[in-house]
Design goal:
homodimer; D-Maltodextrin-Binding Protein, domain 2; about 35% strand; alpha/beta; Alpha-Beta Plaits; elongated; 5-stranded mixed beta sheet; 6-stranded mixed beta sheet
Chain lengths: ~280, ~280
């Protein structure tokens, strides 16, 4: 029997939406209250596949999730891009003037802060999950409280939409990845994108040399991010995504890179979700 | 008369601590409730210098602040690194068992979440500023509520420390920058670090070529971050920091780079705060 797919949050969350888009509308999910719990479900084999947000067009990379994938030696096996649209929802017959508190995830509260400037009577309260608040309002018939969550959540929990797309920056795309314990069943034919991590000394030109190799091997860079290694001054870790046409080109680069860079590591090999 | 220095937050905030460390313990500050307000104070000439957090060892770059500096054509004129230590504080004679709510900035709540797992009776509530909560508890003699803020804030507002260094990840360093409208009064002798922004097409090897120039000109890379341009597919913006020994080496790189890369821009020239 197929195991459920672990997500951060509950049904109706953006992670759930990714499962429905990437896998199947009816896919069973395991609802987790943190990314640590998501990863634990994978390590303890309650799940074989999980979904994690990895970067956002507004906030950039979600470094703690990179660290979770890296430190547990997990594999990215797929990616999915989703436009995040925050909606405000409450029980039927409630208007925004009835609302005294809005509960949501701190990130959602931050992204919608400007919208609430016009409603100074509303108190913003941190909650663990966007969709969970919607669920509780619905199940416990809570008046005076609204949730910020996906439109999906309003439908799932029978809530009334008070406002749509209330985030300050309208174009708010998040990149999610599908993660497994390993990538043993990979289909080399379909792979045209790879996520890499490597370390370099703070020596002039060291990164340029590595990028020259990638370029010579016909790999295209789609993301690069440096992160100083806190415990080791002047040592940097780099997270790099590359795309390519032929897997053999990547194999060539891999063999050179593993000699050139310290702690060279493949975080995932998968199909590029951009056209 | 010297104008005040604008900070995000109030006296006792981490931004205030940076002003005290970088300028002077007695420097006057203009307390702002958002980074937008900080930048507005500069544009409207209420201030000539402001302090902004720019990146964090846990969360990575604070992309919205990069965007504020870039879009208003401001100049970074200095940098300062600060270890963030979150403390829990309340009125005298209150113990943690008396505390029913903790109010703080969403980022501080996130960073200290694990600490509060042992105290499920405490409700976490979002507030605008870490130090502002401390001030209110003190001024309005609020019992049952604690603040998460700097040790500095507990001293300034006469609060009792209930716990120190409660953030989950102990080493939590933030890089702050000092920002002016322009960098007209720069002292070339002292400058050994520069923040750059440029754009490149998604063409194989384009970044490697640029980094080769930097390397050939004896510049050392200390940070690199790519950001897809949302409105232009396949076009990328790069934020890069470089250090060097001789300003003339940078000038040489600058003249080549401005020909090679699109929208090449200097975000700031300043003194490296690392030894």
């Amino acid at each position: 029997m197929k195991k459920p797919i672990a997500i951060q949050g509950i049904k109706g969350s953006f992670h759930h939406l990714v499962v429905q888009n990437y896998f199947n509308t009816d896919s069973e999910v395991l609802e987790c209250m943190s990314f640590d719990d998501v990863v634990n479900s994978l390590l303890e084999k309650q799940t074989d596949e999980v979904v994690m947000a990895l970067e956002n067009s507004i906030a950039g990379s979600i470094i703690p999730n990179y660290a979770l994938i890296d430190s547990h030696n997990l594999s990215i096996v797929g990616e999915h891009y989703l436009e995040i649209e925050h909606c405000l929802m409450a029980l039927e017959n409630q208007t925004i003037l009835d609302i005294k508190e809005v509960h949501s995830h701190p990130m959602a509260l931050l992204q919608c802060k400007l919208f609430f400037k016009a409603y100074p009577h509303i108190k913003l309260v941190e909650a663990k999950d966007t969709a969970d608040v919607a669920k509780q309002i619905s199940e416990q018939n809570i008046k005076g409280v609204a949730a910020i969550a996906s439109k999906n959540a309003s439908e799932l929990y029978n809530l009334n939409l008070l406002a749509e797309s209330i985030q300050t920056i309208k174009h708010n795309e998040t990149r999610f990845v599908i993660v497994k314990r390993n990538n043993d069943e990979k289909n080399i034919e379909a792979i045209n994108k790879v996520s890499l991590k490597f370390e370099l000394d703070h020596k002039r030109g060291s990164l340029a040399t590595v990028l020259n190799v990638l370029s010579d091997c016909k790999l295209n860079l789609t993301k690069i991010q440096s992160l100083p290694k806190i415990e080791t001054p002047w040592k940097y870790a780099f997270f790099v995504d590359v795309t390519f046409d032929a897997y053999k080109d990547f194999e060539k680069a891999k063999s050179i890179m593993s000699l050139m860079a310290e702690n060279f590591k493949i975080l995932g090999e998968y199909k590029n979700a951009r056209r």
